[in-house]
Amino acid sequence: MEEKKKNWFMRHKIITGILVFIVLVGVLGAAGSKSGNSGSNNQSSSASNSAPTQAVQQPPTVVVATALVGDYDKNKLSAQDKYTGKTVQTTAYIDNISDDITGNYYLSLHPTNDQYYAGTSISCYFADKSAKSELTSLQNGQSVTVQGTMADMSLGIVVMNDCKVVK
């Protein structure tokens, strides 16, 4: 009778151990792939900056924020083909100015100024730590033009990396 009073995890210690192991591997793998991607981006940009015969950098693709978010909402695969890896410039409204758990600064942006907007948003991550001084002058609700490299969309958030505030 006492065996039934123990919770499921205590009665199935081997299965519990396996589940914990799988979760840990998943979390560590996700964290490793994120840092691995940023490292490879930094290496490629460093290599391209040191090349004396570097091709002229292409101007950013200017996209209205509602159109950018709309493209991902309509067809994520098509939007990935259109934007991923490309430098994009867009104007949107600041919803949040913060840093993540790794200390990277970011802006959370909405395509409209509607305070009750609950649709797809844009997260703009800044690679340069010196961006903090620029970000402290901004305010939630303010319109801002940013430029960055498009990454992907996950959980209703379109991600831009290596961002900078244009105006």
Summarize the structure.
With 167 residues, the protein is α/β, with parallel strands linked by helices. Helices cover 41% and strands 29% of the residues. It folds into 2 domains: 9-50; 61-165, Nucleic acid-binding proteins (OB fold (Dihydrolipoamide Acetyltransferase, E2P)).
Topology:
Elements: H1 2-5, H2 8-11, H3 13-50, E1 61-62, H4 65-74, H5 76-83, E2 87-99, E3 105-110, E4 121-126, H6 131-135, E5 143-154, E6 157-165
Parallel strand pairs: 1-2, 4-6
Antiparallel strand pairs: 2-3, 2-5, 3-4, 5-6
List keywords for this structure.
167 residues, alpha/beta, OB fold (Dihydrolipoamide Acetyltransferase, E2P), 2 domains, 6 helices, 6 strands, 41% helix, elongated
What would you note in describing this structure?
The chain is α/β, with parallel strands linked by helices and 167 residues long. The chain folds into two domains: 9-50; 61-165, OB fold (Dihydrolipoamide Acetyltransferase, E2P) (Beta Barrel). It has helices at 2-5, 8-11, 13-50, 65-74, 76-83, 131-135; strands at residues 61-62, 87-99, 105-110, 121-126, 143-154, 157-165. It has a five-stranded mixed beta barrel with strand order 2-3-4-6-5. The protein is elongated. The model is unreliable at 35-51 (pLDDT under 50).
Radius of gyration: 21 Å
* Count of discrete alpha- or pi-helical segments spanning 4 or more residues: 6
Rough outline: elongated
Low-confidence stretches: 35-51
Order of helices and strands: HHHEHHEEEHEE
- Quaternary assembly: single chain
Number of domains: 2
Q: What is the CATH class of the largest domain?
A: Mainly Beta
The helicity comes to: 40-55%
CATH architecture of the largest domain: Beta Barrel
- The structure class reads alpha/beta
**CATH topology term of the largest domain:** OB fold (Dihydrolipoamide Acetyltransferase, E2P)
| Mean pLDDT level | 78
Q: What is the CATH superfamily label of the largest domain?
A: Nucleic acid-binding proteins
Major sheet: arrangement of strands: 2-3-4-6-5
Quick one: how many beta strands? 6
